[in-house]
UniProtKB/TrEMBL annotation:
Keywords: Hydrolase, Metal-binding, Metalloprotease, Protease, Zinc. GO terms for molecular function: metalloexopeptidase activity; zinc ion binding. Residues 3-132 form the MPN domain. The keyword Zinc applies. Transmembrane segments: none annotated. It comes from the Archaea. Coiled coil: none annotated. It holds the Pfam family Prok-JAB. This is Metalloprotease. One of its GO terms (biological process) is proteolysis.
Amino acid sequence: MKLVMNEKDVHKIIELAKKSPIEVCGFLLGRKVGNTLTVEEARETRNRLNSPVEFEIDPLEIAEVLDEAEEKGLEIVGIFHSHLKCPPMPSGKDLKGMNLWRNVWLIVTPSGEFRAWTIENGELKELEVEIR
């Protein structure tokens, strides 16, 4: 599987991470065609934990984003968040979340690193990210 994003959205997420003292988070809205997930919009959400080391999105905000995506004919293809002081690899808490939200997890750092992950058959897999 491959994640395709436009440069503007990747830059937007990294800029959010650079400017924030807490982990930023949100959803990647787009479409899945075959083995390709194409992101059409990066939708920021509020980190209700207000924490530099973990994030959580309010269930009401999740419902709002699901409605927005449906109105636009899109689906949630991924979740993004930042790691402020560690590499863009899933933490233990991320892995638990990935088992609940079975889509792509894009993790960025304020320095501009980013990597995409998914869990397939119980195994952590890194996805190719193509920037357009």
